[in-house]
Every structure is written in C-alpha cells, then in structure tokens.
Amino acid sequence: MSPVLSETGFVAVGAAADVPALEGRSVLVDGRRIAIFRLPDGWAATDAACPHRGGPLQDGIVADHCVTCPLHNRRFDLRTGRQDGGDDAVAVHEVFERDGMLWMRLA
Ligand code: FES
C-alpha cells in the first residue's frame, strides 16, 4: 500500500529521479494505470490509456505541455487533457514533487 499524505488523498507514487525530463512513466494508483510526465516547469499526470484505443501515453513524445500518443499520434494537452484538434480527452490528475518523491491524487 502506498503512503498517504494525511487527509489530502495524495499518495506517494515513486521517486522523481526515475522520470527523465520530457518523458513519462506509468504507475498504478488504486488499480488505475496513470502516466506521470516530467515537464520543463513541473509535472503532469493523466490516465495512461489513450482514449482512442488505449495506447500507452506514458511512452508518447512530450513537447509544449502535450503528449503525442505513440500509436496513432493523437496529441493531448497535459494541462487540460483535451485532444489537440479533436474531441477526445484524457483524465488529468494532480501531481507534485516533495523531497524527491512524487505525490498524486486521482481526479
Ligand atoms: S491509441 Fe492513441 S491515438 Fe490511437
């Protein structure tokens, strides 16, 4: 069981050092696969499964606060979850780093 930050609902999901710049990694939170991304100015977290056909968003290319799905190249804004130029959307979750640990809370 993951450590929980008292009464906030945030759970520890791993070490920040394990996520290189402009890359994503997947973690399991309450049985849900989540993609966490290191951005130039912070962190982002979304459901890991692309809403199109379940592609692994954590393996996508990250640029300009967006991730591009590696399967069919749909692009999602990591701040809003909205697809760039389309109607799909992926859930966005809260994530932050403290003392080298990543904490997140499901939306
Ligand atoms: S599965 Fe992501 S774009 Fe198709």
TrEMBL record:
Zinc-finger keyword on record: no
PROSITE patterns: RIESKE
Domain of life, per lineage: Bacteria
All residue ranges annotated as the Rieske domain in the record: 11-104
Keyword set, alphabetical order: 2Fe-2S, Iron, Iron-sulfur, Metal-binding, Oxidoreductase
Entry GO MF terms: 2 iron, 2 sulfur cluster binding; metal ion binding; monooxygenase activity; nitrite reductase [NAD(P)H] activity; oxidoreductase activity, acting on paired donors, with incorporation or reduction of molecular oxygen
The EC number(s) this enzyme carries: 1.7.1.4
Name of one Pfam family that matches: Rieske
Protein name per Swiss-Prot or TrEMBL: Nitrite reductase [NAD(P)H] small subunit
